[in-house]
TrEMBL record, chain A:
InterPro entries noted in UniProt: NIF_FeS_clus_asmbl_NifU_N (IPR002871)
A molecular-function term among this protein's GO annotations: iron-sulfur cluster binding
Gene3D superfamilies tied to this protein: 3.90.1010.10
Source species of the chain: Lactiplantibacillus xiangfangensis
Record-given protein name: Sufe2-like iron-sulfur cluster assembly scaffold protein
Domain NIF system FeS cluster assembly NifU N-terminal as annotated: residue spans: 10-129
Similarity section: Belongs to the NifU family.
A GO biological-process term: iron-sulfur cluster assembly
NCBIfam families (UniProt xref): SUF_scaf_2 (TIGR01994)
SUPFAM superfamilies (alphabetical): SufE/NifU
UniProtKB/TrEMBL annotation, chain B:
Keywords: Pyridoxal phosphate, Transferase
Organism from which the protein derives: Lactiplantibacillus xiangfangensis
Gene Ontology MF terms in the entry: cysteine desulfurase activity; pyridoxal phosphate binding
GO BP term (any one): cysteine metabolic process
Entries under SUPFAM superfamilies matching the protein: PLP-dependent transferases
Gene3D superfamilies cross-referenced by the UniProt entry: Aspartate Aminotransferase, domain 1, Type I PLP-dependent aspartate aminotransferase-like (Major domain)
Cofactor(s) required, per the database record: pyridoxal 5'-phosphate
Family designation: Belongs to the class-V pyridoxal-phosphate-dependent aminotransferase family. Csd subfamily.
Catalytic activity as recorded in UniProt: (sulfur carrier)-H + L-cysteine = (sulfur carrier)-SH + L-alanine
Any Pfam family hit: Aminotran_5
Enzyme class: transferase
Name by which UniProt lists this protein: cysteine desulfurase
Xref: CDD domains: SufS_like
Length: 152, 407
């Protein structure tokens, strides 16, 4: 078996994020979106607190595979502190990257560790795992910054 | 045994996946098709295609004969009392929904109970759950024993005088267990309830005698028994079928249509509205002929030997949890398991790189996943064309993937 290909997908930064996810937990009074991957039962809940058009705090909980958990963890690192417009640009770029499009250096750099997930494009059955948390964030951003707006 | 003379009958087994030989161990999802099935279907379209049950011309009469012969074949396969008790649908799911939309709609009322088991596939659960919502009926579940078998004592408790329908899988698509259908039929009938059996996971792996089981309805799919996708079968007892109003109307199912009224055709045409999947049904016929030529006993012996090898190998590996009974005598050809601290999807991707095709996920049995306190499992399932090399490749690849994630 090609362990090399397995290593290409499961790079150290991905394994580390899955084992010790960043910003794992809940934010009281934050907007929240829970998404499921119906094919496998993975679940991700993302919560976001937006202040003055900036993502002030972002946390997630959930259960699922290495790719879905690592991707959620890395996403919280990338999006925290970004303006809503910047965050939306990151989401579009990530979606392009994960479906095999290449980004310019600046956009790639702005995605931070998330750029590592580009190899998922070679594993089409796993793309949904990688994008689950990002779809949840996308829904949170389009909800606006009304902190009372809770969606299940 | 590393050789399996039946492998050569399945052309797909020559395929390479990720530069490795295809090791197909997802038979519980769908089985591969022997050349005989592929040829029968190609031959029908090349030389025999016409619509059934209407044409006066020779080709249509021949097509109708080929289609109707399969009804006889299926009736014999199931030991149905009459050929009219068998009709063709799109899938097991379609067959089960059919029972809900006819028997369920006509006979289940508010306050009635519908009893299923916690191991049901969504196809034998969601239609009943939604019917219960529509009718104000109660959906109840039969639980499991500690080793994952159906708890018959609980069945006796859950099935009461209020129960109208008991719906149960003959074999689980996760736990690998076979359920005591005959006893469940006795319990259900003692309370005047009907027994609906989902045969999707059992039809290819054991002899089924609907009269001996005393099942009121029995559903299965052609594609799980080496036939094509898109064809399901529903068996129903004739006296039950004769009480049911069709849920679908149109061509083929009528005997006379007037401006305001319609007289329906006889059973079973009454329940086969529209042009059926003629070619698919012919493919099912070829699949049954093929399996008969192999012998269900021979197929079972191969599967039991491989299941034992698989179970023994998995149990010997540290950090593996097997779901359902660990004893090979109690375990059918479906083995679900998990690796400690590694998600089923990550295992599946690693195995896929070795050409080992298995299923990972909730297997369309989310209530069972909740019952087992997992959100996914890995599942390997064998068929008559698998050999011990297949099982060895799975176990070897699993060792490497485990090591990779554990290091």
């Amino acid at each position: 078996m090609s362990l090399l290909r397995l290593k290409a997908l499961y790079q150290t930064v991905i394994l580390e994020n899955a084992q010790a996810p960043h910003h794992f937990g809940t934010l009281p009074n934050a907007k929240t979106v829970t998404l499921h991957n119906p094919t496998c039962g993975d679940e991700i809940n993302v919560q976001m607190l937006i202040k003055d058009d900036v993502i002030d705090q972002i946390m997630f909980t959930g259960s699922g595979c290495t790719i879905s958990q690592a991707s959620a963890s890395i996403m919280t690192d990338v999006l925290k502190g970004q303006t809503v417009t910047e965050a939306q640009k990151r989401l579009t770029d990530f979606s392009d990257l994960i479906t095999g499009d290449s980004l310019n250096d600046a956009d790639q750099h702005a995605l931070g560790d998330a750029a590592v997930l580009a190899t998922v494009a070679e594993f089409p059955t796993r793309i949904k795992c990688a994008t689950l948390a990002w779809h949840a964030a996308d829904q949170l951003l389009t909800m606006g910054d009304d902190a009372d707006d809770k969606t299940k | 045994m590393t050789t399996n003379e039946y492998r050569q009958d399945f052309p797909i087994l020559q395929t390479k996946i990720n530069d490795e030989p295809l090791t197909y161990l997802d038979n519980a999802a769908t089985s591969q098709k022997p050349q005989a099935v592929i040829d029968a279907m190609a031959d029908f379209y090349a030389h025999g295609n016409a619509n059934v049950h209407r044409g006066v011309y020779t080709l249509a009469a021949q097509a109708t004969d080929r289609y109707e012969v399969v009804r006889d074949q299926v009736a014999q396969w199931l030991n149905a009392a009459r050929r009219e008790e068998v009709f063709f649908t799109r899938s097991t799911t379609d067959s089960l929904n059919w029972v809900v939309q006819t028997y369920g709609e006509q006979f289940v009322t508010a306050g009635d109970e519908i009893v299923v088991t916690v191991m049901e596939h969504h196809s034998n659960l969601v239609p009943w759950q939604q019917l219960a919502h529509r009718k104000g009926a109660t959906l109840k579940y039969i639980g499991l024993t500690a080793d994952g078998q159906l708890d018959l004592a609980d069945a006796r408790k859950q099935i009461t005088a209020k129960t109208k329908v008991v719906a149960v899988a003959q074999a689980s698509n996760v736990l690998g267990v076979t359920n005591p259908i005959k006893q469940l039929a006795q319990i259900a009938h003692a309370q005047n309830a009907i027994l609906v059996v989902d045969g999707a996971q059992s039809i290819a792996h054991m002899a089924v005698d609907v009269q001996d089981l005393d099942a009121d309805f029995y559903a299965f799919s052609a594609h799980k028994i080496y036939g094509p996708t898109g064809v399901g079968v529903l068996y129903g007892k004739y006296d039950l079928l004769s009480q049911l109003t069709p849920a679908q109307f149109g061509g083929e199912m009528i005997s006379d249509v007037d401006w305001q009224t319609t007289e329906f055709a006889a059973i079973p045409e009454r329940f086969e509205a529209g042009t059926p999947n003629i070619c698919g049904v012919i493919g099912l016929g070829a699949a049954l002929t093929y399996l008969q030529s192999v012998g269900l006993d021979t197929a079972q012996a191969i599967e039991q030997r491989l299941t034992k090898q698989l179970l023994t190998g998995l149990i010997a590996m540290p950090g593996i949890t097997v779901y359902g009974p660990e004893s090979p005598e109690l375990h059918g050809p479906v083995v679900a398991f998990n690796v400690d601290n590694v998600h089923a999807h990550d295992i599946a991707t690693g195995l896929d790189l070795a050409g080992v095709e298995i299923r990972a996920g909730h297997h369309c049995a989310q209530p069972l996943m909740r019952y087992l306190h997992v959100n996914a499992t890995v599942r390997a399932s064998v068929g008559l064309y698998n050999n011990s090399d297949d099982v060895d490749r799975l176990l070897t690849a699993l060792e490497s993937v485990k090591e990779f994630f554990e290091s």
